[in-house]
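Teaching soon. Invent one.


***
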Amino acid sequence: MNASTLQTMKEAKRWLLRNGKVPFYAASLSPRGATDTEEDCAKLVTHAEATQQLKQHQENGKAVGFELGFALGPDGTGNYWQGIDLDDIKENKLFGFVRAAFGYVEYSPSGNGVHVIGYGKRLMNSANYSSGIEVYSYGRFFTFTGNIIRDEPLKDYSEIFNQDPANRTSEINSSKRALNAGSVVVSPEVYDELERALKVVPAESYENWYLVLQAMKRLADSDRAYAIAKNWSISSSAPEHTEEVFNRKWEKDLENPGPLSYKSIFMLANEHDPNWNQHSIKPSNIHWQEIPLTNLQLEPVDYLIDGFLARSLMVFVGKPGMGKSTAMVALCAAVAGLELPNCSLRPPVKGRKVIYITEDTDQFKRNIIALHRNYDIALEDIDASIKLLAAQRVRGEQLLSLKDMVSRHTAYTEDGVMLRPWLIFDTTSASFHLEDENSNAEVATVLALLKAEFYEKMGCSVCMVAHSGKNASREDLVTDPRGAGAWAGDTTLTSGMVEDRDGQKYIVLGKRRYFAKHTEVRVGLVSTPVTIMDNYGNAQDLQLESALLEWSKPLGREHSQTSAFDAQQKQLDSAVLNFLHSELLHGNKYTLNGLIGAQSEISGRPGKDRIKQAASRLTKKGLIVKGEGKPGRADGWSFDLTETGIKEATQNMS
């Protein structure tokens, strides 16, 4: 076998194509049949063949939205390709597993999970959703992303995961504990004390260094212990104490860390500074001043968007992939006073600028091009209003370097009223260096600095974009971000992008310190298809999508809302219905995945999410229904038109 598992995988005939969760054979583009049979294995191809066939299909207008997949299962030698799916590694605390995993390790398509490929004996397929670990070695495939974490020689995971069916759950949990080496459970306060103690212990001494690593390795919360120990280690001036040396020692040499207790670290700290854990705040230094309650006047709300978004220390949340950044670009344009068609959101005065710090500048540029083309806004006007910066994941005190930029981009009205720019961090994880995003102490420190230095002293409005802790819905108005509770508790405004049962998206306000005339904005999409040339001289179809914002009434309204966006939805529904009807006349039927794959043939060339929303609305209106499918086949059904649907499609054609 190769030293590279990925190279061995590429040479193996285990590759196919996938659209959504449906696998297809690369050559014929037909859905995969019964898995792991001789006929099935004969239709799987190498990575090079699958890549070439995918390119040919797409050049012929087929396989739109398809991606490469790797089939797990027997390879005819008596061995099996094994797959371990680690779901949401942050939420399930699986970083220790990822660090210990061998073979081929890559991020999953969501970016939140990890796929591990092994090779050896047959594993029992099992999924333990509470632990976030799924194990497969037959009848499944993994989407290939190429977003590599590690590529090392093949590893057989059967010794870790094979177990009697009755003991699968206990085996998964025990393997999770085994790979997160550590057995000593302590409270979060002890970790805080250890962090303070290590500030007085020099890391240059090898004896100190090795003792501390052994003691920290025994702790059960491996992620927190790893972060504390690593930060302490790299603070050393010793040239041999590099991050690489630390990781090698932590991951390989300390699998059996020994009997040293974490309390030995406190003993070391006492040797160097007996007062390391004492506080020096003197109550006598604090002066309390009374605030008079006479001659009071009402202060007006300082709005960025009239009746809706006020100056605030704000967090804006939504689940990954929902379109937060696209919606934020439209909000930025509205705050800056750029004219968006059919948009009723207005600033109290034009001229305010926006400083946008993002982890993905390329995506932001695409959103700006879409804004320019879809709404005919000059790029010069956008550039004058919105300043783009790449996120650098800085520590709290390093944020102060932004104060000069905030001052330079401060504008003034004709009456001399100061307009501080809107400062946006997209996302929190890419902008702020936090050892533990679940630590309220760390998050509160960053928020306190932003609040004191930017929000209060400079009068600047600050927005932080974050992922939500769960799928947000319009009914429960979830506006709390994932991680520490301080994100919501220490800010002055929480807001979120949510989705109703029909797939319609909204921006809603949560906790706030002012009365808002509007608390909800409906988010639509304006989409323009474009064709560009890629680096290899091939035509490439893209969708330029911009958000369309309009006021929305809260839940429980009795009268329907009519708007330009409603007309746009109706136009999209008609396009999908007409396409299904036209294809039905030619004897062709489509599943939902088939519809998405044929998006370039539908009028307006809508994106995947818009096709899903249109199909949902057409089904609820009784215009289309799911036809009868083949038992055991997820893709056996297809859409049929009802009599009402055929009648409406016929009227549309006439």
